[in-house]
Predict the 3D structure of the following.
Amino acid sequence: MLRGIYDWTMRMAEHRRAVSALFAVSFIESSFFPIPPDVMLIPMVLAQRAKAWLYAAIATVGSVIGGLFGYAIGFFLFEQMAKPLLAFYGYLDKFATFAAQYNDYGAWIVLFAGVTPFPYKVITIASGATGLNLVVFAVASVIARGLRFYIVAGLLYWFGPPIRAFIEKRLGLVLTVFLVLLLGGFMAIKFFV
């Protein structure tokens, strides 16, 4: 079954609409979708290594624009949705303290979350909700997401054939590690947010 899914993913990575899909997944992952763009970026680079830098750029641009959308969600919908709930439960004052601390370290938080498997959408929405300086957020997002996607693309570009052979031989292990990292990112939310 895994082999069939892998083969299908590799075929889709060469599809004429794969670039648009990569941009779309990168955009929505940064604001509300739980699946990271690496699911598309990795097979696309493995399928066409010569386009690794183009794919990294598309993922970066889509992710940063999606991050700005996530920021807008936090900024504009916080007053209508979250603030009344925080007030009802008596946490509004605690949120003000959290927001001040978050904004003191906001650039570092965005950089950390943008490079790691931590769910980036949580940070984009939190950045808007706390009113993190938009320029700081945007610059940190460009750096973090660019690093993330260019590192992945670069590693696959330079070590593509051996990595592809490794993935194909150990598909179950690779999927397990990916899922552990993905779930670990969501679990980190409980400890850091």
Observations:
- The chain has a mean pLDDT of 82.
